[in-house]
Amino acid sequence: MEILETVWWISLMVISAYHFIVFRIQRTKTIQVDSTDFPGVSIVVAVKNGSKTLVENVGQLCDQHYPTFEIIIVDDHSDAAERSILEKGVEGNNLIRLIHSDRAPGKKQALSLGIQEAKHDFILCTDADCYPKGPNWIRQMATHTNGKEMVLGYSPYEKKAGFLNRLIRFETIMTGMQYLSWAMVGRPYMGVGRNMLYPRSLFLHESPYDGQQHIPYGDDDLWVQQAANNIEVKVCFDKEAHVFSSPATSLSEWLKQKHRHLSAGHHYAFKSWWQPAGFATALILHWIILLPLVLQTHSFWVSIFFALGLLLRWRTHILWTNKLGDKDTNVWFPLLEIVYAIYLAGISLYTSIFKKKAWN
């Protein structure tokens, strides 16, 4: 029991250190560039058999208050019926260029083709099932770069009824809190491909997907890690720059989605891997050990510091929901964190054994 208690105290200290040092958003500020000379932006979307949703969302992609932009949709070998829906859905729209990929199947190959065909200096990536909150998405993302930086945006899920939806949105906040915080302290390790802006010239120079064709995911995480070696990575909190996506409606669908997202971790460099892994490991151990520890030791100090640690994390969560939204998760925080820790333990074990072999 002494060993368990020692491990628990260490886990609490690690979690608290993350919250005190890394997740303190009030200590760091995003820098917004005051510029009226906005660069041209090419929105690039890769799609494979998701034409109906993309066609439904494309109007919001087009309705942007931005002087110079285009939309490039790259069809990654969709079925014939899906291709037909896509072609009819974008027909006659002068803002959109539809490209049918003639390269090997895969999201990275499709994105590379779209970026190479782009006309403008900046690439803004999103996914086929996503839509921006409003017409100032491009403008807000572009105002966070002076022409050289990569900008990471945030991508929440739509609010629906039920506990699963609340858990999905809570997990999204926790993920956003981590990758945005680390970017602000100068150690970016990931982004989400639903909302990322970067110079086209940097992508063409770095060719980040060369040698990665066998990895069907990581078009965002691994690219951020490589780009961070050469340029500054900034973040955009502005809610007008949020890009929404429809959430999974069943547990199995959500876990399948998260399996794909987390599989990129197999290919992280250690210097990037430990940043989310350290927090996840500490949180899992904290909750797994807590119950037997309290039942066996009845320690007054364990109870006191557990409560203080929970209040610290609760406060951090409230601060982040003020920035990112989904404030309705605040009142549920203790329960959601417990379930989140269980989810992390299960999905991490599953992902370490079974590797995802496709991007969709």
- The helical percent reads 40-55%
Distance between the termini: 45 Å
Shape: elongated
Given helix and strand content, the structural type is alpha/beta
Calculate the mean pLDDT score and round it: 88
Poorly predicted regions are none
Strand content: 5-15%
Taking the sheet with the most strands, its summary is: 7 strands, mixed
Description of the structure:
- This protein has helices at residues 2-22, 51-62, 80-90, 107-117, 137-142, 163-184, 200-206, 221-227, 251-263, 270-297, 300-324, 333-353, and strands at residues 41-47, 69-75, 96-100, 122-127, 130-132, 150-152, 196-199, 233-235, 243-245.
- The protein has a seven-stranded mixed β-sheet with strand order 3-2-1-4-7-6-8, sandwiched between helices.
- It contains twelve helices and nine strands.
- The chain is elongated and about 70 Å long.
- The chain has 360 residues and is an alpha/beta fold.
- Helix 1 runs parallel beside helix 11 (300-324) and helix 9 crosses helix 12 (333-353).
